Fold these 3 entries.
Entry 1:
Amino acid sequence: MTRCDAYWDKVRDLLAKGDKEGLVEFCEKSPRMIERIIDHVEYEEKHNLRPIGPFSEGTTRPLRTLERINPDLHTCALDLVLNEGMTPKDAVALVRKQAAITPPTGLYNIIVIDPPWKFDGDYDGAARRSVPQYPMMDYEEIQSLDIPAADDCVLWLWTTNLDMKAAWMIAEIWGFEVKSILTWVKNRMGLGYWLRGQTEHCLLCIKGSPIWNNTTMTTALHADVREHSRKPDEFYTMVDRICSGTKLDMFAREQREGWTTWGNETEKF
């Protein structure tokens, strides 16, 4: 028996006895980490992973996350682990790649993109922060996206506070020049640690000489919050008013008249 096997056998024994205090003392981990360890053991037993282990909390985390956000893809990934000998990380990466949606066709004069920026961690009520329950992308993955921009194009790139610098750089890599920043001022406070969030930001970028018709819209957009990550209708009304040409909404979560929508949740709302 390896040292790793002995460690996890002890963890399982303490869990079976319901001795959470003993588990905390044995593992010498924070309560938050203990919850992750418990999730790991329960997941391992649920899917009979022990015979092909050993697996650690960190090893099974990609599978546990995928099970929450996409049960169908999780089933495929778990099959690769159980029957093909793949690691959980590689199995999850493969099924996500195979399930990738077909890239948009044609070129567009107006593109709105709301990338699923990656956030490291899990929900933490004490820190007032959470992780979206859908697959996220790191900077390299976002940067490698094919942006079907016409020679004259306006790009609206939504970003988070922490990803602002990266978003600016990615827009330039895509061949755009950042011209301004639109700030969505929400009607209520959200999560956050250093400051509670009440805004989201969207970089206004251009390529070439797009048609632009604006004399009244400012850098502030006041609109109510709805479902998580859903952008306000007032934003699209503004874009329709001041931009002209073919329109594409990337990572869209609902259909809009006059727009081509692209993403794997275009019918969510």
Entry 2:
Amino acid sequence: MIVLSILDKWVLSFQPLFSRQAAFQWFVLVMFGFLLRTEGEGVTSVIRCLGLASNEYVNLLHFFHSSAFSIVPLCHHWRSLVFQYAPLVLVNNRPVYVVDAIKVGKTGKKMPGVKLLHQESEDNSKAQYIMGHFWGSLCLLCGSCERFAAIPLRLQLQDGLKRSPSEKATLPDKMLRLIRETAAVPGLVVADRYYTCRNVLRGLLDDDFHFPQNCFCSTDRRINDAGTDCSQYFRLSWYRWLVSFVGFSVLTSTFIDDFNSSPQHHI
């Protein structure tokens, strides 16, 4: 009952973000469907889980295209709840953001945002090219010294859709924009080497973020050719040669001592 009361309090805090009461009621229904469903079939799984009539499928589709709410304020409010109640992992009193991207295959070739994507994985069970969505995600690292969890703050389609016909932003630029729009407090950004480029490094450091990453020599050479000292892009010099991996596995034994000595990491 305690969990349900807390969940009910969180859900009701989203109500001012909706201009129509009916849209908020659908939001509550969809959210509980996502929490209780046992399969990942999208809207169909929500209908099966809650036992709704089959003709409610169209109404659910209309909800996701409703003009009664905006996704950005919803994500910002969710971010404030996570910062307020989640046990944050702090490094030098800074939150840790985990960014990554994933390619999800789709069978509908005319679905919005679906395009031909190249698979970089060396797994023979995956096709070299797939039709699907390219999702970028920003998560916040939470937990204790023994167990960590990356709580999603926002997911965004970063390829196949354009804000304007003249948009020429690259995928790293879109990830940088996602971090700037979503992250409320500057912190430590953990990502793979794909995002180690001059625009991302300069943008993060201009906003007082830190980016611990192992940098290729080719990247150093491009920065030096531009007449800029590469060392200024790595404020945490003792992180520079730290081998980072996808997700939060970058937090190796180098950080464990900090976690054990800092009380805010314990639940």
Entry 3:
Amino acid sequence: MNTPVNDRFADYLRQISGGLKHMNAEQRNDVLAEIRSHLADRAEQFRSQGSFEAEQDAIRALGDANTIALQFSSEALEQKASRSFRPWILMAAALRMAKLGARGLAVFLIGVFGYGLAFGALVAPIIKLFIPQTGMWIGPHEFVLAGVPGDPQSARELAGANFVYLMVLVAFLSGTVTTFLLRKMIRSREHAKAIERHPVSPRS
């Protein structure tokens, strides 16, 4: 967004612009335009109350530029993740949410477990090429989903020749369920935040 040199809000808007992430140029310009409009309205309000530093009062009322940029960046990432099927985007949003509270941490841990299980299931058939005993085992005191039991003599392999196909199925189901679950939880958080959203909010 091009800002006139003599703009009284230029430095503040420039700081916010530098911290905005996870949004395209149009979204960034929309956010900055909304913030500029909000600042102008607040400055006019302070001016009507007799303030001699209305613009600075408006900036102080809105808050720290870096904090504002982080807020909008987080919202933009969550909006992007709620519509995405890419695990790395969903996990990036979940990681940000994990830093904000217990619910966010739960979302992140679900993602780690689900995608971790999917990854492990995909790797297991490759490991079997080098360690033929790799499989799905059950014994008197243990169950191994994909690996080698501690005591092969007392354990029984369940999958047999279908082990590779079973692991591919586990990877697909785990990855799919985790993706849709994260999308749903992120979207749920997005809707909850919309109810009490800051007066200035990024457009999707």
